[in-house]
Structure formats: C-alpha cells, structure tokens
C-alpha cells in the first residue's frame, strides 16, 4: 500500500523500491476507489475538452529539424509518418521526429550561466493561418497573447515544450539546463494549471480565436491543443525522479544516447504511439511512468487512453509479462449533474490533491 500510495501522492518524488514489479492487487484497487471518488467531482470540467479533435496531424516545424547534435531515427520516423498521415490532405506533410541530444554533463563545480528558460512555440508562427470575414487573422494574435499571459508562463507546461520549442531542444542537450526546465515546470500548482490549460484549450478552439485553423488541421494549433489537453499526465511523469539517483526520469531519458527509446514514452499522452522498434530500458523510471499513464487512462478522453494499451504490451514484451499493467483502469464516467458540484469537497483532502490532475 505504501509503495503505491507514495507513487500516487507525489508527482515529483517517488521512493518506491525498484525491485518490486508486482503491485498488490488489493492496494491498487483501494487506491482506484479513492481516485474514483475524487475524480467524479472534478472531471466534469474538462470532460469534453477533447471533443473537437478528429484527426491528429503531427508536423515537425522547422525548429524540430534544426540544431546540431540531434540524432534522427529514420526507421521510427518512417513509422510515425505512416501512422500520422492525414489522407484527406495531401499538402500536409506529416513528419515527426524525436531526437536525442548529446550529453554535455557539467561537472559539479561549473558555474551555470543564468540563461533564460526555453519558451514554448518559439519557432515563429509562420504557418498558414486563415482570415475571417473582416480580413483579420485572429489566431496568431491569440497564440501570442496566451504565450505572454503571466499565468501561462507560471504554469510552464512541459507538454507544450515537447510539442515544439527551439530553445527547449537546445536545453535538452545539457543535463543542467534540462533539470532547470523540469524544476520550473514542476514548481506550479498542477491542479490550478490543469484547470487553466483546460480553459485555454477551449478558448483556443473558439471560432473567434483559432477554431477555424483547428478545423482545417493547422498543425501548430492542433499540436498546441493536444498539449493543453495532455498537461496533467505530462506534468506528472515529467516530475518523476529515479529513486536511485534523484535525477529526473525525463532528463535520464533525453540524455541517454545509448537508448533513445525511453523518450518516446513521453509522447504517448500526445496521442503518438510508440514506434514498433522501441526497445525500452526496463528501469524503475519506465515503470513509474507507465503507472501514471495507466491511472490517467481513467479519463478515456485523454489521448493516453488510446495509446497506453499497445505501449504497455510492447514494454512487457521486452521487460517481462508483469513489468507494467497492460489493462486500462476502469473508465470514470461523469454524469452531467456533477458538473456544477463544487471542488471544495476535495479541497479538504489536501494530500490527495496531487493525484487529481492526472485524471482530468
Ligand atoms: C489519436 O490517434 C488515433 C490514431 O492513432 C486517432 O484515431 C484518434 O482520433 C486520435 N485521437 C485524438 C484525440 O486525436
Ligand atoms: C493556406 O490555407 C488555405 C486554407 O486552408 C489553403 O486554401 C491554401 O492553399 C493554403 N496555402 C498554402 C500556401 O498552404
Ligand atoms: C492549487 O490550486 C487549487 C485550484 O486552484 C487550489 O484549490 C489549491 O488550494 C491550490 N493548492 C495549493 C497548495 O496552493
Ligand atoms: C478564456 O476566455 C474567457 C473569455 O474570454 C476568459 O475569461 C478566460 O480568462 C480565458 N481563459 C484562459 C485560460 O485564457
Ligand atoms: C541508458 O540506456 C542504457 C541502455 O538501455 C541503460 O543500460 C542505461 O542504464 C541507461 N542510462 C541511464 C543513465 O539511464
Ligand atoms: C491491472 O489493472 C487493472 C485495472 O486497474 C486491475 O483490475 C488489475 O487488478 C491490475 N492487475 C495487477 C496484476 O495489478
């Protein structure tokens, strides 16, 4: 119980022993019951967040392909291209590349220059945006306005950094700077930020903002939308640390040149399935990450519910049949009547609040 609970209660620091691959079934069930109680009061607010989405077009904008030191994985890339191609629109190029940086491990005595943190969507909004009847192009203005919103900056979502940020890819080359990025994205109140991102995703897809571009499949808008929806699961796994080293799991994955596969898992909440050739390191980080993802599948509207099952089965093929639990947790269906129920009910359960963002 303590093992599972410590995982559930903290997005940042998990101290479960790596040796235990079998979680007690009863404990897990008990936790889920608790989660079920909590989530039904909070889930309604974001339950319809993802409805406008029909197809996902992954488009690696130029920043993803720039920057020295990135290793391109052509087989995986080809698979992803095939999976993500939008047949209706031959003009859309569907390239998606996950690259792994070279490690520039700073010695502990090196002074770190106070460089600004990477920003999301800093590659320029050169995309083809639509005009409305008045001849205005509202979407870039909307994007720029949320990017400068102090609340957005405070939330500093890892999910949006993953979806396209030139400066983030540069930061990933250094263990020091990626750690600073993760410190910043794990610092804010995830419950607040999840609500904020959920609201923002709804605003994004309004016709007066980026709704028309979203409907036309504009890749910047669609990627941003998906990242807003997937804020919570990516917050949770981005803040996990390897219990043996106290290093962020994500920093381990992105700086491990000998095995780039572990990076792919961070794209599962963004509806990007694992390439078939993925051979993960069977680490406790991977196990914790998949446990978080499994819990997040309770909301079937999260893209992770679509990508988890096959990813878990791929993991177990390599790591052993019980390494992660391949079964999606039961769906938590929210009745419309719960929509207006106050969140105050859960606020008294302070330690459990950390759990909520995953499931929204
Ligand atoms: C996720 O991707 C699948 C195809 O892999 C697609 O059918 C589904 O609609 C996508 N879900 C979202 C929310 O975009
Ligand atoms: C821009 O988008 C419009 C509407 O989606 C499309 O008709 C046009 O061909 C696009 N132009 C370019 C250069 O992609
Ligand atoms: C986090 O934000 C939520 C929602 O805004 C709020 O109810 C809660 O009190 C906050 N928690 C902390 C520790 O500030
Ligand atoms: C969404 O739009 C509403 C109405 O314009 C605004 O009040 C709210 O602050 C916006 N939410 C976010 C997260 O930007
Ligand atoms: C990097 O990947 C290799 C191969 O999977 C693994 O043995 C090693 O432990 C990893 N290193 C770190 C620091 O995670
Ligand atoms: C796997 O997860 C499912 C769904 O939550 C649960 O019913 C089952 O007991 C779990 N299996 C194990 C071995 O923990």
UniProtKB/TrEMBL annotation:
InterPro entries: DUF7729 (IPR056146)
Ranges for domain DUF7729: 116-327
Entry keyword annotation includes Isomerase: no
Entry keyword annotation includes Signal: yes
Keywords in alphabetical order: Signal
Position of the signal peptide: 1-44
Protein name from the UniProt record: DUF7729 domain-containing protein
Organism for this UniProt entry: Lasiosphaeria hispida
């Amino acid at each position: 119980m303590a093992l599972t609970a410590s995982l559930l209660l903290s997005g940042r620091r998990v101290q479960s022993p790596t040796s235990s691959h079998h979680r007690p079934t009863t404990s897990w069930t008990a936790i889920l019951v608790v989660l079920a109680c909590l989530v039904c009061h909070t889930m309604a607010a974001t339950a319809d967040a993802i409805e406008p989405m029909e197809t996902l077009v992954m488009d690696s904008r130029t920043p993803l392909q720039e920057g020295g030191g990135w290793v391109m994985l052509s087989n995986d890339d080809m698979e992803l291209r095939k999976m993500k191609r939008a047949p209706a629109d031959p003009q859309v190029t569907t390239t998606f590349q996950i690259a792994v940086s070279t490690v520039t491990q700073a010695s502990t005595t090196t002074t770190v220059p106070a460089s600004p943190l990477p920003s999301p969507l800093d590659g320029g909004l050169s995309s083809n945006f639509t005009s409305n009847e008045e001849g205005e192009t509202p979407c870039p203005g909307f994007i720029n306005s949320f990017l400068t919103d102090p609340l957005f900056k405070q939330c500093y979502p890892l999910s949006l950094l993953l979806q396209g940020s030139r400066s983030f890819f540069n930061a990933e080359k250094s263990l020091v700077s990626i750690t600073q990025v993760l410190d910043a994205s794990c610092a804010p109140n995830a419950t607040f930020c999840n609500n904020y991102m959920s609201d923002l995703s709804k605003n994004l897809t309004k016709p007066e903002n980026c709704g028309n571009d979203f409907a036309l499949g504009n890749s910047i808008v669609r990627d941003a939308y998906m990242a807003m929806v997937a804020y919570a699961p990516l917050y949770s796994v981005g803040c996990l640390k390897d219990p043996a080293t106290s290093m962020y799991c994500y920093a381990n994955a992105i700086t491990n040149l000998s095995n780039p596969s572990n990076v792919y898992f961070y794209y599962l909440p963004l509806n990007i399935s694992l390439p078939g050739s993925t051979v993960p390191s069977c680490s406790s980080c991977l196990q914790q990450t998949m446990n978080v993802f499994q819990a997040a599948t309770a909301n079937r509207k999260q893209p992770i519910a679509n990508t988890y099952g096959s990813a878990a089965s791929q993991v177990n093929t390599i790591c052993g049949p019980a390494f992660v639990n391949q079964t999606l947790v039961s769906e938590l269906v929210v009745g419309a009547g719960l929509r207006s129920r106050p969140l105050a009910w859960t606020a008294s359960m302070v330690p459990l609040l950390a759990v909520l963002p995953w499931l929204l």
